[in-house]
Design brief:
185 residues; six-stranded antiparallel sheet; five-stranded antiparallel sheet; globular
């Protein structure tokens, strides 16, 4: 496994070891001891799985407030997505900055999204499946979001007319969004 640092502190891109031959491949998508050896100490308690049947489906930007904030370990198991993470930790040197990554069934990359980051993705092809582990249960009372098209963020999404849920059309801009994360350096 290779851990790639990103320009957003604490956000990690993970390349698992993949063993392939003429039959296909084998990989450990998660091994607690291996992750802990690399300093990833979260205890994941729930797996989530989504299917987006069309290209251009955008889900996000989502997060949960403390005390139900979630760390996510995200991967794309079918198709390809453009995955975006925004630092929303007050006091962070990268507060309000975003970074995007291509996660796909082909590249098998995973993204560790710590608490204090808003997360979203846009499907690049039809029939994308995304799986992610979380270290806290979903709590509707703590569920929040930021507008996908917030001009102050300037996210370069791969579509200008995404397919959105009703919920995702109503998120506020970052300056108006409720968030209670503090950067700890």
């Amino acid at each position: 496994m290779i851990i790639l640092e990103t320009h957003l502190p604490d956000l990690k891109l993970i390349e698992p070891a993949v063993f392939g031959d003429h039959r296909g491949f084998f990989m450990e998508s998660y091994n607690e001891k291996t992750y802990q050896k690399h300093g990833i100490m979260q205890t994941f308690i729930q797996d989530n799985h989504s299917l987006s049947v069309e290209a251009g489906v955008l889900r996000g930007l989502h997060y949960q407030l403390h005390p139900q904030a979630q760390t996510k370990l995200v991967r794309c198991t079918a198709g390809s997505i453009y995955d975006v993470v925004v630092d929303i930790r007050k006091g962070s040197p990268t507060y309000g900055q975003w970074q995007g990554f291509i996660l796909s069934a082909a590249n098998k990359r995973q993204l560790l999204v710590p608490q204090g980051f808003a997360h979203g993705f846009c499907t690049l092809v039809p029939n994308c499946e995304v799986m992610y582990k979380v270290d806290a249960l979903y709590s509707p009372d703590h569920d929040r979001g930021i507008a996908w098209n917030d001009p102050t963020l300037g996210i370069d999404w791969p579509t200008s007319a995404p397919i959105l849920s009703d919920k995702d059309t109503k998120h506020p801009m970052l300056t108006d969004a409720e968030h209670n994360f503090i950067y700890k350096g």
